[in-house]
Amino acid sequence: MKQENHIIGNGVRCLTLADSRFKTAQITVALLLPLTKETVEENALLARLLVRNCAQYPDFTALNRRLNELYGATVSGEVSRVGEVQALVFTAEATADRFAFQGEKVTAACADLLRDMLFRPAFENGCFRAEDVEPERRCLAEEVRAEINEKRWYARCQAERLLCPNEAYSIGRYGSTEVIESLTPERLTAAWKRVLQQASVQLILQDNCVLSEVEDAFCREFAAVEGRQPVPCFTDTATRMPTLRRKVERMDVGQSKLVMGFRTDYAEPQREVSAVRLMNALFGGTATSLLFRNVREKLSLCYYCSSAYDRVKGVLLVQSGVDEQNAVRAETEILAQRDLICRGEFTEEDLEAARRSVVQSFEAVNDSQSARAAWYVVQSTRDDLRKPEEIREEIAAVTREEVIAAAQKLQYECVYMLAPKEEATDE
After folding, report:
1. Cβ(360)–Cβ(340) under 8 Å?
2. What domains lie within the chain, and their CATH numbers?
3. pLDDT tens for residues 171-221?
């Protein structure tokens, strides 16, 4: 696989991945902006609205006819959070040109369509059309409302707010339903102009060959944006709190969700991140981890118990499903497993099983174009784009002592529990 990454314009980088293993070409445009309370809802809605149509193909029928002409190409838009950066990610995927029946330039045509969607929306009187805004606004608001039904996800979000109460990290990925429902075509049009002016851009081109004509076309589009001045995107590492914070929220649930929040002291681009990654895998990040084997399997305190490390923000969350009467003991045992790592009381077999799991996860990144694009979107918040192979080699070299040192830096800062409603008692 041939890989090149270079700056092609003001705040615009292009990564080309020439790989003959895939029969499709994929074009990804990631627009990176600071995650703020003032803009989160506008950006989230734009990610949906912009791939609905464009000026040349202004309705569903016309757009789908064009996609069918391009051998069933697809175009999608989504929004994600990378630390304290909001990423609007637009993807076009099409059959690679070498498989076109008549030698058509399918990839370039698909890129043209994606550019039209981003830069030439279907406007009416200089604004987004109300008939396009209303259904997308309604769907996004419904998705936000539905998050409370995903209790495990809801508990995690609440724990993040408890862990980072005054930081951008606590902002929901889509914002609030109240603001979403108040968004107008005029406000979204202003937001669209702001995004094109202020976003840092990572263009990712994946095909069998280098798509220089696609790269040049996107470069010209962004260069033509009036008043373009990219805003720096960065994530503040978490500030340690002096006391442990606790919160219990009660709902109509059958199983309690216990989420424990830790700060690690290490985040990108610090070299210790690889040690924390391996420590997390040993702690609770794999099916062979201490939390899974001891807290869930041996002691049967949890229905599930796992940990996840956000290397961009430098925080680690342990999530578990418990019966409320077991919550205190589960919390104690989870901390006891952390302390075992701090004291080095784990076997070489435990460490190597964790290492193999992490290494294999990096090997899998290059198995699909979508996984590779997702990897580089996260990497695009850095000044340099690191290959998964580089991180894999670092993980392979992490020592036992470095894992112990990483565990010793874990500071327990918050615990959130979503518990069943208390039963009413007769007086």
Report:
1. no
2. 2-223 (3.30.830.10), 245-420 (3.30.830.10)
3. 988 999 999 999 999 999 999 999 999 999 999 999 877 678 899 999 999
